[in-house]
Amino acid sequence: MKSYSIRGIDKELDKKIKEYAKNNNMSINQWILSILRKITGLEQEKIFKEYHDLDHLAGGWTEQDLNEFNQATADFRKIDEDLWE
Question: Would 37 disulfide with which of 9, 41, 43, 52, CB 3.0-4.6 Å?
């Protein structure tokens, strides 16, 4: 892999780079690489942001929950052959 040295980074730019990297929970190197990938078109930004703030409300199904649901909705999966003739 290649390495690059970037010269001429003033204090204001240095502060902003560190701030953006920290806000994105990335190292400075990771953040700069992600920005370069985005502006060169090698990485596409997501159109819709993913939210996980309501995940705890969704919960999960146990095996028993799944079985009960499948039994309760089994009739919906049946095809009435007489209706399709």
Answer: 43
Spatial contact of 29 and 36, defined as CB atoms under 8 Å apart: no
Domain of 17, in residue numbers: 9-44
Q: What is the pLDDT of residues 49-59, one digit of tens each?
A: 888 888 878 87
More confident residue, 62 or 7: 7
Whether residue 38 lies inside any domain: the answer is yes
The CB-side HSE value for 8 (13 A sphere, CA atoms) comes to: 0
DSSP one-letter code for 43? S
Total tally of structural domains belonging to the chain: 1
